[in-house]
Amino acid sequence: MAEKEKHHPIPLYGVTIHDAICSGDINRMKQVAQEAEQYLQQAGDLPAALQALKIEIAKAEHKK
């Protein structure tokens, strides 16, 4: 088996995903997709958590 390529973690955000698409490199696109899937599994329901955080911020600001 060939030694795995060493690469540094890349933050997964729109630019990273867009760049992978623009590269046209199917292996790169698959790698980024796999990393994004793993991130989403670890992150849980991030949109709901962010919404709860924003609600708590609004409550805290209202109390001032």
Percent range of helical residues: over 70%
- Quaternary structure type: single chain
The share of residues in extended strands comes to under 5%
Summarize model confidence as the mean pLDDT.
83
Ends apart, CA distance between termini: 62 Å
- Report the uncertain regions: none
Biggest sheet details: none
Overall form? elongated
Given the helix and strand composition, which structural class is it? mainly alpha
H/E series: HHH
**What's the total count of β strands?**
0
What's the tally of helices? Answer: 3
Number of separate structural domains: 1
Radius of gyration, whole Å: 18 Å
List keywords for this structure.
64 residues; mainly alpha
Characterise this structure.
- This protein is mainly alpha-helical.
- The chain has one domain (14-63).
- It contains 3 helices and no strands.
- The longest helix is centred in the middle third of the chain and has 18 residues, at 26-43.
- The radius of gyration is 18 Å and the shape is elongated.
- 3% of the residues are buried.
- The model has no long low-confidence stretch (mean pLDDT 83).
